[in-house]
What does this fold into?
Amino acid sequence: MQTEEKKYSPPGRIKIMNALSELMREKDFHSITTAEIAATAGVTEGLIYKYFKDKRDLLYQVLNGHFQTFHDHIVSKIQARKSSIEKLSVIIRTSMKSYAANRVFAKILLLEVRNSPNYFESDAYDMVKIYSRTILDIINQGMEAGEIRRDISAHALRQVILGSIEHACLGEVIFGKELDTDQVSEHICNIIFTGAKK
Amino acid sequence: MQTEEKKYSPPGRIKIMNALSELMREKDFHSITTAEIAATAGVTEGLIYKYFKDKRDLLYQVLNGHFQTFHDHIVSKIQARKSSIEKLSVIIRTSMKSYAANRVFAKILLLEVRNSPNYFESDAYDMVKIYSRTILDIINQGMEAGEIRRDISAHALRQVILGSIEHACLGEVIFGKELDTDQVSEHICNIIFTGAKK
DNA sequence: TAGATAAGTAAGTATTACTCACCAAGGTAA
DNA sequence: TTACCTTGGTGAGTAATACTTACTTATCTA
It folds into this structure.
């Protein structure tokens, strides 16, 4: 029953995860205390450590939940598209939209987890690797299909895509700035695919 | 004497800042204790709070020091270059080189500070704004000079440049992977300036 | 209906960031 | 010289907070 054990979660677990998500809307992870989490969840502090190894593990599992739906959404969006350029464009636009729509998710992913080595052992990071792999595969397909230049590095292109998405969302995530995702993603695609040089 | 007051630093202050830099090579900021910092600095814990508002303020000031030399280096490197494309290329290459050469600096800048709102009030962040502004100015000059397309967003181009640099260095910073900065920066410039589409 | 297992509690404990009152050594002015 | 002020540094605390552990209550099933 290994596969199913993650599906059902006791109410306390859910409440704790929701509580952290809630609190992360206003505060950064470090200034949220376990007492606070327990209080907003309506459970006792000890219960947190029944379901999570430590406070950071809770964070990773919250991220994992968010990333799961994020990734499903991305996959469903690119399915219809045929060309690789189209697919990558959709990934850029959809990712930015998701980050903008779910700021807590973006905040955790972009600002809160990467500073700790344990994150890279977590289930959440496994999801990120899959997402990242998907992009690389599309790039390679695009090269084989003759849509994308073969003389550039596929890895570098992925870095450019991922970096652009993330950096473009930083202002929004950190300062709560409004972000016109359609317009900005359009601009970014334009630069990445057709180049900035005149 | 406001301008000079920063120049002279008592030995204890220097030792503390060096100690944190030292410790950050092996550990992430959160798992470094103030006791540890004081011990490696050879001073007492209380002295930290004589020179720094709190543990994070110490981190910001360490970053500020690193960023100062980083920025000076960048400025000196682009001075000789005439075209904007050249200047931006140099910025990309030099930034990546600096991040790779000084991993602690990169680690602090990319992973450790952005999660806390106070950072954005710090002197270190003021330096980042200047660096960021420099890039935007170069882009605008390039547009006026007819080197860079006018129909793309200057801000978006900056995001792409900064995001690409940072994301390309993440693997190196986090996992200590080797990174051929010359080659990777070359690839990135190629993509950004001439486009990925065939 | 017994008994195992899972969900949840309550009261700790050790660690750690931070404070505060104090000491020592120049430098300056009377 | 002496008095005193500023600056660099100390060391013993303190409150807060992440985490533990022994316990209770509910649920399920044989």
